[in-house]
Amino acid sequence: MSRRDNALAALVATLWGLNFLAIDLGMGEVPPLVFLALRFVAVVLPAVFLVPRPAVSWRVLGAVGLFMSVGQFGFLYVAMGVGLPPGIAALVLQAQVVFTIVIAAGVLRERPTVAQGVGVGLGVVGLAVVALGRGGDVPLLGLGLCLMGALSWGIGNVVSRAAKVPGGLSLTVWSGLVVPVPVLALALVVDGPSAVVEGLAAVDGAAVLATLYTAGVASLLGYGIFNTLLARNPSAAVVPWVLLAPVVAMTAAWLLLGDLPTVGEAGGGLLLVLGVLVALRAPRRRRASAPALGVGRALAGQGRERGTDAPRGEVGAELVDLVEGAEAR
Protein backbone atom coordinates (compact mmCIF):
# COMPACT_ATOMS: atom_id res chain seq x y z
CA MET A 1 0.00 0.00 0.00
CA SER A 2 1.03 3.62 -0.43
CA ARG A 3 2.19 5.72 2.51
CA ARG A 4 -1.10 7.59 2.41
CA ASP A 5 -3.11 4.38 2.61
CA ASN A 6 -0.92 3.11 5.46
CA ALA A 7 -1.53 6.34 7.37
CA LEU A 8 -5.28 6.05 6.78
CA ALA A 9 -5.25 2.44 7.99
CA ALA A 10 -3.42 3.51 11.17
CA LEU A 11 -6.03 6.23 11.72
CA VAL A 12 -8.84 3.68 11.37
CA ALA A 13 -7.17 1.40 13.93
CA THR A 14 -6.96 4.30 16.39
CA LEU A 15 -10.61 5.28 15.90
CA TRP A 16 -11.74 1.69 16.32
CA GLY A 17 -9.62 1.19 19.42
CA LEU A 18 -11.36 4.11 21.12
CA ASN A 19 -14.70 2.78 19.90
CA PHE A 20 -14.62 -0.06 22.45
CA LEU A 21 -14.42 2.40 25.31
CA ALA A 22 -17.28 4.41 23.85
CA ILE A 23 -19.44 1.27 23.70
CA ASP A 24 -18.57 0.29 27.27
CA LEU A 25 -19.15 3.75 28.70
CA GLY A 26 -22.34 4.46 26.78
CA MET A 27 -24.21 1.16 27.05
CA GLY A 28 -25.11 1.56 30.72
CA GLU A 29 -28.66 0.31 31.35
CA VAL A 30 -29.51 0.05 27.65
CA PRO A 31 -29.68 -3.57 26.36
CA PRO A 32 -26.79 -4.32 23.97
CA LEU A 33 -28.90 -4.99 20.88
CA VAL A 34 -31.05 -1.90 21.47
CA PHE A 35 -27.88 0.18 21.79
CA LEU A 36 -26.64 -1.33 18.50
CA ALA A 37 -29.93 -0.50 16.74
CA LEU A 38 -29.65 3.11 17.91
CA ARG A 39 -26.11 3.26 16.56
CA PHE A 40 -27.14 2.27 13.06
CA VAL A 41 -30.19 4.49 13.02
CA ALA A 42 -27.67 7.31 13.56
CA VAL A 43 -25.43 5.86 10.82
CA VAL A 44 -28.21 5.74 8.25
CA LEU A 45 -30.13 8.94 9.05
CA PRO A 46 -29.79 11.42 7.48
CA ALA A 47 -26.76 10.17 5.50
CA VAL A 48 -28.80 7.83 3.29
CA PHE A 49 -30.53 10.89 1.78
CA LEU A 50 -27.20 12.65 1.14
CA VAL A 51 -24.88 9.85 -0.04
CA PRO A 52 -25.57 8.23 -3.44
CA ARG A 53 -26.18 4.48 -3.45
CA PRO A 54 -23.03 2.55 -4.48
CA ALA A 55 -23.01 0.81 -7.84
CA VAL A 56 -23.55 -2.68 -6.42
CA SER A 57 -26.55 -4.95 -6.13
CA TRP A 58 -28.86 -5.04 -3.13
CA ARG A 59 -27.56 -8.55 -2.56
CA VAL A 60 -24.04 -7.21 -1.95
CA LEU A 61 -25.34 -4.41 0.27
CA GLY A 62 -27.34 -6.92 2.28
CA ALA A 63 -24.39 -9.29 2.65
CA VAL A 64 -22.02 -6.53 3.82
CA GLY A 65 -24.63 -5.21 6.24
CA LEU A 66 -25.46 -8.61 7.69
CA PHE A 67 -21.89 -9.87 8.09
CA MET A 68 -19.88 -6.70 8.74
CA SER A 69 -22.49 -4.93 10.88
CA VAL A 70 -25.26 -7.17 12.23
CA GLY A 71 -23.04 -10.19 12.81
CA GLN A 72 -19.89 -8.46 13.97
CA PHE A 73 -21.45 -5.87 16.25
CA GLY A 74 -24.37 -8.01 17.39
CA PHE A 75 -21.99 -10.61 18.82
CA LEU A 76 -19.59 -7.93 20.10
CA TYR A 77 -22.22 -5.86 21.93
CA VAL A 78 -23.76 -8.93 23.56
CA ALA A 79 -20.27 -10.18 24.53
CA MET A 80 -19.53 -6.87 26.24
CA GLY A 81 -22.99 -6.94 27.77
CA VAL A 82 -22.18 -10.23 29.55
CA GLY A 83 -19.00 -8.76 31.01
CA LEU A 84 -16.21 -8.95 28.42
CA PRO A 85 -13.88 -5.97 29.17
CA PRO A 86 -13.40 -3.45 26.33
CA GLY A 87 -9.65 -4.09 26.01
CA ILE A 88 -10.09 -7.86 25.76
CA ALA A 89 -13.05 -7.42 23.39
CA ALA A 90 -10.86 -5.29 21.12
CA LEU A 91 -8.20 -7.98 21.30
CA VAL A 92 -10.34 -11.06 20.61
CA LEU A 93 -12.17 -9.34 17.75
CA GLN A 94 -8.85 -9.08 15.90
CA ALA A 95 -9.10 -12.78 15.12
CA GLN A 96 -10.90 -11.34 12.09
CA VAL A 97 -7.45 -10.70 10.58
CA VAL A 98 -6.76 -14.43 10.41
CA PHE A 99 -10.30 -15.21 9.25
CA THR A 100 -10.12 -12.54 6.52
CA ILE A 101 -6.77 -13.64 5.10
CA VAL A 102 -7.73 -17.33 5.14
CA ILE A 103 -11.14 -16.72 3.54
CA ALA A 104 -9.70 -14.29 0.96
CA ALA A 105 -7.03 -16.85 0.03
CA GLY A 106 -9.67 -19.50 -0.57
CA VAL A 107 -12.38 -17.38 -2.20
CA LEU A 108 -10.52 -14.55 -3.93
CA ARG A 109 -7.24 -16.43 -4.51
CA GLU A 110 -5.37 -13.60 -2.75
CA ARG A 111 -2.36 -15.51 -1.50
CA PRO A 112 -0.63 -13.79 1.42
CA THR A 113 3.08 -13.11 1.14
CA VAL A 114 5.57 -14.76 3.47
CA ALA A 115 5.95 -11.48 5.39
CA GLN A 116 2.19 -11.16 5.77
CA GLY A 117 1.94 -14.75 6.99
CA VAL A 118 4.73 -14.22 9.53
CA GLY A 119 3.22 -10.90 10.63
CA VAL A 120 -0.22 -12.40 11.16
CA GLY A 121 1.38 -15.30 13.03
CA LEU A 122 3.12 -12.85 15.38
CA GLY A 123 -0.17 -11.04 15.82
CA VAL A 124 -1.93 -14.26 16.76
CA VAL A 125 0.80 -15.06 19.28
CA GLY A 126 0.38 -11.57 20.69
CA LEU A 127 -3.37 -12.13 21.03
CA ALA A 128 -2.74 -15.38 22.90
CA VAL A 129 -0.17 -13.76 25.20
CA VAL A 130 -2.55 -10.95 26.12
CA ALA A 131 -5.44 -13.36 26.70
CA LEU A 132 -3.31 -15.61 28.92
CA GLY A 133 -1.88 -12.63 30.76
CA ARG A 134 -5.35 -11.37 31.56
CA GLY A 135 -6.09 -14.25 33.95
CA GLY A 136 -9.40 -15.92 34.71
CA ASP A 137 -11.68 -12.87 34.87
CA VAL A 138 -12.73 -13.12 31.21
CA PRO A 139 -16.15 -14.81 30.75
CA LEU A 140 -15.98 -17.82 28.45
CA LEU A 141 -19.35 -16.98 26.87
CA GLY A 142 -18.12 -13.47 26.08
CA LEU A 143 -14.99 -14.85 24.42
CA GLY A 144 -17.01 -17.25 22.29
CA LEU A 145 -19.47 -14.56 21.20
CA CYS A 146 -16.63 -12.19 20.35
CA LEU A 147 -14.94 -14.85 18.22
CA MET A 148 -18.20 -15.33 16.32
CA GLY A 149 -18.23 -11.58 15.73
CA ALA A 150 -14.67 -11.81 14.40
CA LEU A 151 -15.67 -14.57 11.96
CA SER A 152 -18.63 -12.53 10.74
CA TRP A 153 -16.37 -9.47 10.26
CA GLY A 154 -13.88 -11.55 8.28
CA ILE A 155 -16.61 -12.73 5.90
CA GLY A 156 -17.84 -9.15 5.52
CA ASN A 157 -14.32 -7.96 4.69
CA VAL A 158 -14.04 -10.49 1.86
CA VAL A 159 -17.47 -9.54 0.49
CA SER A 160 -16.48 -5.86 0.56
CA ARG A 161 -13.15 -6.62 -1.12
CA ALA A 162 -14.82 -8.70 -3.84
CA ALA A 163 -17.34 -5.93 -4.57
CA LYS A 164 -14.53 -3.34 -4.98
CA VAL A 165 -16.84 -0.42 -4.31
CA PRO A 166 -14.80 2.78 -4.92
CA GLY A 167 -16.73 4.82 -2.32
CA GLY A 168 -16.35 3.28 1.11
CA LEU A 169 -18.69 5.81 2.76
CA SER A 170 -21.57 4.94 0.44
CA LEU A 171 -21.16 1.22 1.14
CA THR A 172 -21.11 1.87 4.89
CA VAL A 173 -24.26 3.99 4.83
CA TRP A 174 -26.36 1.92 2.45
CA SER A 175 -25.37 -1.45 3.91
CA GLY A 176 -26.40 -0.01 7.28
CA LEU A 177 -30.01 0.02 6.10
CA VAL A 178 -30.30 -3.69 6.83
CA VAL A 179 -29.15 -3.36 10.46
CA PRO A 180 -31.70 -1.54 12.71
CA VAL A 181 -34.87 -3.54 11.98
CA PRO A 182 -33.48 -7.11 12.36
CA VAL A 183 -31.36 -6.11 15.37
CA LEU A 184 -34.34 -4.49 17.11
CA ALA A 185 -36.49 -7.53 16.30
CA LEU A 186 -33.80 -9.76 17.78
CA ALA A 187 -33.72 -7.56 20.89
CA LEU A 188 -37.48 -8.03 21.30
CA VAL A 189 -36.99 -11.80 21.16
CA VAL A 190 -33.89 -11.97 23.39
CA ASP A 191 -34.65 -9.24 25.94
CA GLY A 192 -38.40 -8.95 25.70
CA PRO A 193 -40.62 -5.95 24.82
CA SER A 194 -40.60 -4.51 28.35
CA ALA A 195 -36.78 -4.56 28.54
CA VAL A 196 -36.55 -2.84 25.15
CA VAL A 197 -38.96 -0.08 26.24
CA GLU A 198 -37.14 0.38 29.56
CA GLY A 199 -33.79 0.44 27.74
CA LEU A 200 -34.95 3.18 25.39
CA ALA A 201 -36.16 5.17 28.39
CA ALA A 202 -32.74 4.72 30.05
CA VAL A 203 -30.88 6.47 27.24
CA ASP A 204 -28.92 9.32 28.86
CA GLY A 205 -26.28 11.84 27.85
CA ALA A 206 -23.48 9.28 27.97
CA ALA A 207 -25.43 6.95 25.69
CA VAL A 208 -26.12 9.78 23.24
CA LEU A 209 -22.45 10.82 23.10
CA ALA A 210 -21.34 7.21 22.71
CA THR A 211 -23.86 6.71 19.90
CA LEU A 212 -22.59 9.82 18.12
CA TYR A 213 -19.01 8.56 18.36
CA THR A 214 -19.75 4.97 17.36
CA ALA A 215 -22.00 6.08 14.49
CA GLY A 216 -20.29 9.21 13.20
CA VAL A 217 -16.62 8.50 13.88
CA ALA A 218 -16.23 4.71 14.11
CA SER A 219 -18.81 3.74 11.47
CA LEU A 220 -19.15 6.56 8.95
CA LEU A 221 -15.56 7.79 9.06
CA GLY A 222 -13.79 4.59 10.10
CA TYR A 223 -15.63 2.11 7.89
CA GLY A 224 -15.84 4.62 5.07
CA ILE A 225 -12.02 4.74 4.99
CA PHE A 226 -11.65 1.00 5.65
CA ASN A 227 -13.97 -0.09 2.83
CA THR A 228 -12.21 2.32 0.47
CA LEU A 229 -8.84 0.78 1.38
CA LEU A 230 -10.23 -2.73 0.80
CA ALA A 231 -11.50 -1.66 -2.63
CA ARG A 232 -8.05 -0.67 -3.87
CA ASN A 233 -5.67 -2.91 -1.89
CA PRO A 234 -5.39 -6.66 -1.21
CA SER A 235 -7.14 -7.78 1.96
CA ALA A 236 -3.90 -9.13 3.43
CA ALA A 237 -2.33 -5.66 3.15
CA VAL A 238 -5.19 -3.80 4.85
CA VAL A 239 -6.53 -5.96 7.68
CA PRO A 240 -3.23 -6.44 9.63
CA TRP A 241 -3.40 -2.77 10.55
CA VAL A 242 -6.51 -3.45 12.62
CA LEU A 243 -4.31 -5.48 14.99
CA LEU A 244 -3.30 -2.11 16.46
CA ALA A 245 -6.86 -1.41 17.67
CA PRO A 246 -6.53 -3.47 20.87
CA VAL A 247 -3.27 -1.70 21.72
CA VAL A 248 -5.11 1.63 21.42
CA ALA A 249 -8.08 0.28 23.41
CA MET A 250 -5.89 -1.02 26.25
CA THR A 251 -3.83 2.16 26.39
CA ALA A 252 -6.96 4.31 26.46
CA ALA A 253 -8.52 2.08 29.16
CA TRP A 254 -5.35 2.54 31.21
CA LEU A 255 -5.28 6.32 30.81
CA LEU A 256 -9.01 7.00 31.09
CA LEU A 257 -10.30 4.19 33.32
CA GLY A 258 -7.22 3.36 35.36
CA ASP A 259 -7.18 -0.19 33.95
CA LEU A 260 -3.42 -0.81 34.18
CA PRO A 261 -2.23 -3.43 31.66
CA THR A 262 -0.62 -6.58 33.04
CA VAL A 263 2.81 -7.73 31.94
CA GLY A 264 1.13 -10.22 29.58
CA GLU A 265 -1.07 -7.54 28.05
CA ALA A 266 1.87 -5.20 27.52
CA GLY A 267 4.06 -7.94 26.04
CA GLY A 268 1.28 -9.18 23.78
CA GLY A 269 0.59 -5.64 22.62
CA LEU A 270 4.23 -5.25 21.59
CA LEU A 271 4.00 -8.50 19.63
CA LEU A 272 0.89 -7.16 17.89
CA VAL A 273 2.75 -4.01 16.83
CA LEU A 274 5.70 -6.09 15.63
CA GLY A 275 3.34 -8.33 13.68
CA VAL A 276 1.81 -5.34 11.90
CA LEU A 277 5.24 -3.97 10.99
CA VAL A 278 6.36 -7.34 9.59
CA ALA A 279 3.11 -7.91 7.68
CA LEU A 280 3.34 -4.48 6.04
CA ARG A 281 7.00 -4.86 5.05
CA ALA A 282 7.27 -4.24 1.32
CA PRO A 283 8.50 -7.25 -0.69
CA ARG A 284 11.81 -6.93 -2.47
CA ARG A 285 11.61 -6.14 -6.14
CA ARG A 286 13.44 -8.50 -8.45
CA ARG A 287 16.21 -6.85 -10.44
CA ALA A 288 15.81 -7.21 -14.18
CA SER A 289 18.42 -9.38 -15.89
CA ALA A 290 20.85 -8.06 -18.44
CA PRO A 291 19.78 -10.63 -21.08
CA ALA A 292 16.20 -9.37 -20.89
CA LEU A 293 17.39 -5.80 -21.40
CA GLY A 294 19.56 -6.92 -24.31
CA VAL A 295 16.67 -8.68 -26.03
CA GLY A 296 14.51 -5.59 -25.73
CA ARG A 297 17.20 -3.35 -27.21
CA ALA A 298 17.80 -5.83 -30.04
CA LEU A 299 14.11 -5.89 -30.93
CA ALA A 300 13.95 -2.13 -30.82
CA GLY A 301 17.00 -1.88 -33.07
CA GLN A 302 15.57 -4.31 -35.61
CA GLY A 303 12.41 -2.25 -35.80
CA ARG A 304 14.38 0.92 -36.49
CA GLU A 305 16.51 -0.79 -39.19
CA ARG A 306 13.48 -2.32 -40.94
CA GLY A 307 11.02 0.33 -41.87
CA THR A 308 8.39 -2.34 -42.48
CA ASP A 309 8.87 -3.98 -39.07
CA ALA A 310 7.61 -1.18 -36.88
CA PRO A 311 5.49 -3.34 -34.57
CA ARG A 312 8.52 -5.36 -33.50
CA GLY A 313 10.42 -2.14 -32.86
CA GLU A 314 7.58 -0.79 -30.77
CA VAL A 315 7.47 -3.96 -28.71
CA GLY A 316 11.22 -3.82 -28.21
CA ALA A 317 11.13 -0.17 -27.18
CA GLU A 318 8.34 -0.85 -24.71
CA LEU A 319 10.30 -3.76 -23.28
CA VAL A 320 13.36 -1.57 -22.85
CA ASP A 321 11.32 1.10 -21.09
CA LEU A 322 9.73 -1.51 -18.84
CA VAL A 323 13.02 -3.18 -17.88
CA GLU A 324 14.90 0.07 -17.38
CA GLY A 325 12.03 1.36 -15.28
CA ALA A 326 12.18 -1.77 -13.13
CA GLU A 327 15.92 -1.34 -12.66
CA ALA A 328 15.45 2.30 -11.68
CA ARG A 329 12.95 1.27 -9.02
Automatic annotation (TrEMBL):
<feature type="transmembrane region" description="Helical">
    <location>
        <begin position="263"/>
        <end position="280"/>
    </location>
</feature>
<dbReference type="InterPro" id="IPR050638">
    <property type="entry name" value="AA-Vitamin_Transporters"/>
</dbReference>
<protein>
    <submittedName>
        <fullName>O-acetylserine/cysteine efflux transporter</fullName>
    </submittedName>
</protein>
<dbReference type="InterPro" id="IPR037185">
    <property type="entry name" value="EmrE-like"/>
</dbReference>
<feature type="transmembrane region" description="Helical">
    <location>
        <begin position="238"/>
        <end position="257"/>
    </location>
</feature>
<feature type="transmembrane region" description="Helical">
    <location>
        <begin position="171"/>
        <end position="190"/>
    </location>
</feature>
<dbReference type="GO" id="GO:0016020">
    <property type="term" value="C:membrane"/>
</dbReference>
<feature type="transmembrane region" description="Helical">
    <location>
        <begin position="202"/>
        <end position="226"/>
    </location>
</feature>
<keyword id="KW-0812">Transmembrane</keyword>
<dbReference type="Pfam" id="PF00892">
    <property type="entry name" value="EamA"/>
</dbReference>
<comment type="similarity">
    <text>Belongs to the EamA transporter family.</text>
</comment>
<keyword id="KW-1133">Transmembrane helix</keyword>
<feature type="domain" description="EamA">
    <location>
        <begin position="141"/>
        <end position="280"/>
    </location>
</feature>
<feature type="transmembrane region" description="Helical">
    <location>
        <begin position="32"/>
        <end position="51"/>
    </location>
</feature>
<feature type="transmembrane region" description="Helical">
    <location>
        <begin position="58"/>
        <end position="80"/>
    </location>
</feature>
<feature type="transmembrane region" description="Helical">
    <location>
        <begin position="138"/>
        <end position="159"/>
    </location>
</feature>
<dbReference type="InterPro" id="IPR000620">
    <property type="entry name" value="EamA_dom"/>
</dbReference>
<feature type="transmembrane region" description="Helical">
    <location>
        <begin position="86"/>
        <end position="107"/>
    </location>
</feature>
<feature type="transmembrane region" description="Helical">
    <location>
        <begin position="114"/>
        <end position="132"/>
    </location>
</feature>
<keyword id="KW-0472">Membrane</keyword>
<feature type="domain" description="EamA">
    <location>
        <begin position="8"/>
        <end position="131"/>
    </location>
</feature>
